[in-house]
Amino acid sequence: MSMIHLNKIDIENTPKVRRLNIINGISGIKSANLIGTSSKKYGSNVAIFSSVMHVGSDPALLGFILRPDNDVPRNTYSNILETGYFTINHVHESFIEKAHYTSTKFEYGESEFEKCGLHEVHLFEFPAPFVEESRVKIGLKFVEEVDIKSNGTKLIIGKIQELQMPQDCLDDKGYMRLDRLYDVGIGGLNSYYSLRRIATFPYARVSELPEFQALEKEQGRA
Ligand SMILES: Cc1cc2nc3c(=O)[nH]c(=O)nc-3n(C[C@H](O)[C@H](O)[C@H](O)COP(=O)(O)O)c2cc1C
Hints:
Elements: H1 8-13, H2 16-25, E1 30-31, E2 33-39, E3 43-49, E4 53-57, E5 60-66, H3 75-83, E6 85-90, H4 96-100, H5 112-115, E7 120-121, E8 130-131, E9 137-148, E10 153-164, E11 184-187, E12 191-194, H6 212-218
Antiparallel strand pairs: 1-11, 2-3, 2-6, 4-5, 5-10, 6-9, 7-8, 9-10, 11-12
Residues 45, 47-51, 64-67, 74-76, 100, 103, 105, 186, 189 line the site of flavin mononucleotide.
């Protein structure tokens, strides 16, 4: 198999767009979420984010990486600062294209909901809009922002206040079936993948480690 090897210098010398594509893709599949916010003056806003991450379960915290743009104001960020709230809504196969185009740099006051054919819904008297099409809706209170010095991005952290999802996407232990939701994964900045659950394993304990070493010996590799 022919391979590509890039060292630090090669990466720095790669043409800008190609480098951006490679580095955006190299972290593998990321989750696809729409972040909903609102502002008194400009109304509702929604944008796609591939960097939503688990920060901790007690307290229940999620975060996402915000890339500040020096040329364009970032509505998501200014709305979160203004209201203190935002929503995270899973993206499903049925509306990936609409979700993707929420990344368009619209003018202030133009709602991505309207422009992209998505619908906002207001639930639980929550101060930020949810995406009606999304079957997993999470309402969060902004709790902290962390400046990432290496590149000027920010980790925005929110504490879950509200959570809504279909009953049948959770099993009796509380494990989520993302495939039953037709959730999607994002590769790079513009490719969408469908999800299939291929395995689940128990909590990994030393005492219950499968016989990997014996298997390696059997296969003559150890
Ligand atoms: C697939 C995809 C994933 C994205 N992920 C992020 C992300 O994690 N962080 C970010 O700051 N911008 C991300 N963007 C860019 C935002 O969606 C885009 O800048 C959007 O205009 C932000 O909206 P706002 O100005 O209303 O906040 C992503 C764009 C796409 C197409």
